[in-house]
Amino acid sequence: MGYDSQLRIPIIELPLMNSEDMVRGTDKWQSLCKRVREACENFGCFEVVYDKISSHLKEETFSSIRQFFDLPLETKKKYVNPKPYHGYYEVLGLLSSLSESIGLEHASNFNSLKSFSQLMWPNGHDHFCQSISTMMKQLEELSEMIGLMIVDSYGLGEEAAESFLKHYMLLRLMKYLAPPSGEYTNALIPHTDKCSSALLCEDQIAGLEIETKDGQWVKVFPSPGSFVFMVGDILMAWSNRRMHAVKHRVMMKGKKDRYSFAAFAIPVEGSIIKAPKELVDEDHPQVFRDFDYTDFFNFSYSEEMRYFDSSKKLFVYAAQPIN
Ligand SMILES: O=C(O)CCC(=O)C(=O)O
Ligand SMILES: [Fe+2]
C-alpha cells in the first residue's frame, strides 16, 4: 500500500466546555459536533486544537517524561501492573525493538502518582506528580467533552448521554529510539487501539502515521499546540461501525529520539458494549453482538491472538454472522 503525501487529517478547534462558544444544544455546539462526527467516520481521527492546555504545561509534562525514561532500567522495572498494556515495557521487550513505554492508571490523582514517584525516585518527585496530574485532569475533561459531542452528533438525547459508556483513563508515556541506521524504520507496529478513544501528544519529533480507509498511509504532523484524537475499536463497535477505528503506527528516522504520551479512554470493568437502538436499523444492521469489554480486552492480548492483525481482532471476537 502506498503513501498519500498530500492528505492531512481534519483540524478542529475546540473551545472550553461551557465557555460562550461551547454551550450544549446551541448551533455552534451542533456544528462542532457534526465536524467531530464526520472526522471520526471518515478518518477515525482528527487534530484537536485546545487552548486550555497551555504550551507551558506541555513542556513541563515532557520534561517529567524525559526524567522518567532517564532512570536506570532496574528502577523502571520495579513498576509492575499485570494488566496487558498497563505496565512498563522495556526496549527489546514484547512491543518493539525501538520503543519503551509505561502505563499509569489514576494519573490525574496526585496522591496515586506520589506512590509511583516514591517507587522511582528516593525522595519521590512532586514536580513530576504535579505536571502529570494537571495534564491528565485536563485530558480527562477534553476526552469527556468529545465523548458527549459524539453522542450529541447522533441526536441520541439525554438518556443516551447519561448511559454512554463509563470510562477510566490510562496514561501511557512513550519513548522511541532513533533507529541505529538513521533510516526510516517501524517503531510501533500498525494497530487499532483496544479502547474507546485516545488523545495523543508528541514532542516535536514526527513519526505517527495513519492508514486511510482506502489503504493509503498518511504522515501526521500535528502542530506543537495540538493533540490527535483517535477512534478505537470500542467507539467503532458502540457506533455500530459508523465510526472508523483508525489503524496507525510509528515510523522513526533521523538521529533524535521521540517522546509522546497518550490518554486512553477505557470502559470500566463490567461494561457491556452495545450500540444504541437508534443506530441500528434496516440500512445499518447490527454489526457486532453485545459483548463484555474486559473479555474482549483479554482476548485481544491472549497468546493465540498475539500476531493476528490488530484491526481484525474485534471482528473475529464479536462480528455477527451475515445471514
Ligand atoms: O506514540 C504515538 O504517537 C502513538 C502511540 C500509540 O499508538 C499507542 O500507544 O497506542
Ligand atoms: Fe495506538
UniProtKB/TrEMBL annotation:
Gene Ontology MF term list: dioxygenase activity; metal ion binding
Give the record's keywords alphabetically. Dioxygenase, Iron, Metal-binding, Oxidoreductase
| SUPFAM superfamilies linked | Clavaminate synthase-like
Segments forming domain Fe2OG dioxygenase: 166-267
| Domain of life of the organism encoding this protein | Eukaryota
> What InterPro entries does the annotation carry?
DIOX_N, IPNS-like_FE2OG_OXY, IPNS-like_sf, Iron_ascorbate_oxido_reductase, Oxoglu/Fe-dep_dioxygenase_dom
Q: Which family is this sequence assigned to? A: Belongs to the iron/ascorbate-dependent oxidoreductase family.
| Biological role | 2-oxoglutarate-dependent dioxygenase essential for auxin catabolism and maintenance of auxin homeostasis in reproductive organs. Catalyzes the irreversible oxidation of indole-3-acetic acid (IAA) to the biologically inactive 2-oxoindole-3-acetic acid (OxIAA).
Kindly give the PANTHER family that the UniProt entry links to this protein. 2-OXOGLUTARATE (2OG) AND FE(II)-DEPENDENT OXYGENASE SUPERFAMILY PROTEIN-RELATED
Name the chain's protein: 2-oxoglutarate-dependent dioxygenase DAO
Tell me what organism the protein belongs to. Corchorus olitorius
